[in-house]
Amino acid sequence: MKRPGSFGCSVLFAFGSLAGSPAYSESGDLALTFRTHYGQVDRHFGPEDSEEASFTTKVDYTSAYYGGFLGFDASVYSVSKLYADKNTAGLPLLDDDGNGFSKIGQANIKIRPVDDLEFRLGRMRVISPLLIDTAGRSEPSTREAFKMDAQLGSASLYGIYSTAVSRAGNDSFESYTEDDDGVAIVGGTYRFDDALSVHLAHGQLKDAKRQTYFNASYGIPLGEDRLSFDLHHYMAKGIGDQSNLADATGPDGQLDTYLSSLAVSYAHEDVTYSVSYQGVGDDLYEPSWDGFENDRSVLWTNNSVQILDFYNPQQESLQFRVDYAPSRVPGLSLMTRYTEGDYSSAGETLEDKEFNLEAMYEVQQGWAKGLSFQLRYADVTIGGVGELEDVRLIAQYALDF
Q1: % helix / strand / coil in the chain, to the nearest 5?
Q2: Which residues pair with 74 in a beta bridge?
Q3: 261 has which bridge partners?
């Protein structure tokens, strides 16, 4: 169900007046970002190839706290069409019709009653393992939500209740279910010392499913090098009558599955070598709450890559990865990885493969400081479907005022 667009406008008007009042001692921070994004998908199977290019202007405003207590943040996104051909990839850099659009992506009130506690209400980007708004397209997805953050010593706690989402390439906010049910999440992180940290989160959507997430990260210094371990474990189970469940279920008509991942990395000078394993339970594991209709949440595992996520039933996958950030060329980073995994479907063994190359350079000084260029390339084999290549070129320039 679509949410009316007047919500963000009303909040903008109210707090725009507040920010200009004499009692508002600090004006806050204003950031302007220009982003040119080109995407191309060449398929060696049924659907047509796709090609799009967009130019995005993003304005982000972060206010100070009025009276040390009350503030307001907002973001406006304006996406212009540069080129579109055969808009079938679901890239999406433009809207569903291959055109540009504008929207108020963020507009939220923030309240800080004490230094270690903050509440937010309105439109916002949410970054959590069970609900995440990524920024890999023309503009990021955002949510209508209530969010609480608290700091208790070494523990960082949060609570989220989201009622609607606006995915990338869409200028409206859509509910997760026909009855406007919301996603509720509680979680937190705890850092024991410089070596070990844990993250636990639990969330659910009425008559759909609940998801639980656990992460443990541990690093060991080895002289000037470092050995790191990163464990992720997800669990999903259908709840209620499952009338809102969009996930594929097993033969018994129920959802009950898990996804586990372990990554080991070794950092030596400018190079980091990583290997990661991922395994899935008896049912498909989809991180989205509505079957990716609007909620495009992704996994927080290494094996969730540019195109594939390797989360099919009983799928096991292995990845090898190398990251290189040469100290002699500040601002340059290079990455290559190869992920492969197989699973069984209808008595047939299917194999997924993905090879990725990424290169990024950000200007470090001078008049062009803040300008970055990025190349992302994927060569993909989808078991039982076919092969494709995905290329993305991104240029971005950020200014802070």
Answers
A1: 5, 60, 40
A2: 61, 107
A3: 232, 278
